[in-house]
Write a structure and sequence with these properties.
By secondary structure, this protein is α/β, with parallel strands linked by helices. The protein contains 15 helices and eleven strands. The radius of gyration is 19 Å and the shape is globular. Bound molecules: guanosine-5'-monophosphate.
C-alpha cells in the first residue's frame, strides 16, 4: 500500500457527495440532530454501516444530500475531498457532481457549481490548478512545484431528472467551461429513468464538443446498454451487467471503462473481487482506469484500489504504473495538461523498483 500511495495517480470517477469523509458527515448530522431536523442515532447507524446494496446506497445519497444542502457546506466538502485525493498522490482529478436546486437555501444549479468552485480555491494543503489558462504562460508550460493537483469538474445528470433539467445542466457546463468544467456524466439510480429522456441533453453536449461519460450496465438492462454503446460516449463507468453480445461490442469498441472494484463488490453488482470483469478487460488490453466511485461511503481510497488490483489480480509495480500512466490518455482535458503530467510519470518510471 505505501508504494501504491507514492505512485502518481489519475482519478476519473469520483462523485463529490459520495467522497465526503464520514467524520464530516457525522459532524453535519450532529448539527441537524441538535436542531431537531433529523434523528441522529438513526442517521449515525446508516452512515457507519459497512456493506450496503445499490438500492441502500441511493437512500444514503438522499440522506447525504440532506446534510450537504447549503453553499458553505458544499464548499467545505469539496475542499476536503480534493485534499484527501491529493494526500493519496492523485495528480489529476476529475470530480463529478450533480448541480442541485435548493430554493430554501437560495441555491440554484449555477450557485451550487460556484460553491464547488469556491471549494477548489479554499484548498490549503496543495496547489490546485483548475483551468488551462493557469498552465500556459507566454505559450510555455510552467514548471510546477512538486505538490500540485489538477482538478476538473464533470457535471452529472441525475437519472431522476427531466429532459429540461438535464438540458439545463449541459447548458450550465457549456457556460462554465472556462472555470474547468470539462464534461458531462449520467448517473443516479440505474433503476430509475429512461435513456430517451437524457438523449437530447447528451446530444447537445456532443454537438458542442463536451465529452460524456455514462454509468452503464450497473443493473441488467440490455436495450439501454445497446443504446449507450451505440452513442459511443468518451468513457463509461462500471459495465458490470453486460450480456455476451454487448460485452463483445464493448471490447470491439475503444470506449474506456472506469473500473470501481470496491464499489462494485460492496453494492453486490459483482459478487466477488476475483470474478470482477476487470480481469477480462485487462487481459483484452481494453482501456480501463481504476477509480474509487464513492471513497467516503465505501471506505476506500485510490491507493487501496491499486493495491487491490495488485493483490487480487497479480499486477506488478510496472503494470500498476502503466495503468496509472495510461489513464492520462482518457482524461477530458487538453494536451498541455497531459504533457505536464506525463513528465511526472516519466520521473516515476525511472525510480520504480
Ligand atoms: P453528487 O452528484 O451529489 O455530488 O454525488 C452523489 C450522486 O452521485 C448520487 O446521488 C448519485 O446520483 C450519483 N452516484 C454516486 N455513486 C453512484 C453509483 O455507484 N452509481 C450511480 N449510478 N450513481 C452514483
Amino acid at each position: 500500500l505505501p508504494w501504491c500511495r507514492s505512485l502518481p495517480k489519475i482519478e476519473l470517477h469520483a462523485h463529490l457527495n459520495g467522497s465526503v469523509r464520514s467524520s464530516t458527515l457525522l459532524e453535519l448530522a450532529i448539527r441537524l440532530g441538535e436542531k431537531g431536523l433529523i434523528n441522529f442515532p438513526e442517521v449515525e447507524a446508516i452512515i457507519l454501516k459497512g456493506d450496503r446494496s445499490l438500492a441502500e446506497c441511493f437512500k444514503l445519497f438522499d440522506l447525504i444530500h440532506l446534510l450537504t444542502t447549503d453553499h458553505n457546506i458544499i464548499t467545505r466538502i469539496t475542499k476536503e475531498v480534493i485534499e484527501d485525493f491529493a494526500s493519496e498522490n492523485v495528480i489529476y482529478l476529475e470530480l463529478r457532481t450533480t448541480p442541485k436546486l435548493n430554493p430554501l437555501a437560495g441555491m440554484t444549479k449555477r450557485s451550487y457549481v460556484e460553491a464547488v468552485l469556491a471549494g477548489l480555491k479554499a484548498v490549503e494543503t496543495v496547489e490546485v490548478i483548475s483551468n488551462t489558462s493557469e498552465i500556459q504562460q507566454n505559450g510555455l508550460v510552467m514548471t510546477r512545484p512538486k505538490e500540485s493537483i489538477h482538478v476538473r469538474l464533470l457535471l452529472s445528470i441525475d437519472r431522476r431528472e427531466s429532459t429540461e433539467a438535464a438540458m439545463e445542466t449541459v447548458q450550465l457546463a457549456l457556460d462554465m467551461q472556462k472555470f474547468g468544467i470539462v464534461g458531462i456524466d449520467l448517473s443516479g439510480n440505474p433503476r430509475v429513468g429512461e435513456w430517451k429522456t437524457f438523449m437530447p441533453a447528451l446530444k447537445l453536449a456532443r454537438e458542442q464538443g463536451l465529452p460524456i461519460t455514462l454509468h452503464c450496465g450497473e443493473v441488467p438492462n440490455t436495450s439501454e446498454v445497446q443504446n449507450m454503446l451505440a452513442f459511443q460516449p468518451e468513457r463509461i463507468g462500471h459495465a458490470c451487467c453486460l450480456e455476451e453480445p454487448e460485452w463483445a461490442a464493448l471490447l470491439q469498441s475503444s470506449i474506456p471503462v472506469e473500473v470501481c472494484l470496491t464499489s462494485n463488490v460492496r453494492t453486490e453488482t459483482v459478487p466477488f473481487l476475483r470474478d470482477h470483469h476487470f480481469v477480462s478487460l485487462y487481459k483484452s488490453r481494453h482501456p480501463s482506469i481504476l477509480c474509487t466511485d464513492d471513497s467516503g461511503i465505501f471506505a476506500t481510497d485510490i491507493s487501496r484500489e491499486y493495491a487491490l488490483a495488485a493483490v487480487c489480480f497479480g499486477l506488478t509495480k510496472a503494470e500498476l504504473l502503466s495503468m496509472a500512466r495510461n489513464a492520462l490518455r482518457h482524461i477530458f482535458c487538453g494536451d498541455e495538461v497531459k504533457a505536464e503530467l506525463e513528465d511526472k510519470f516519466k520521473a516515476m518510471a525511472t525510480v520504480i523498483d
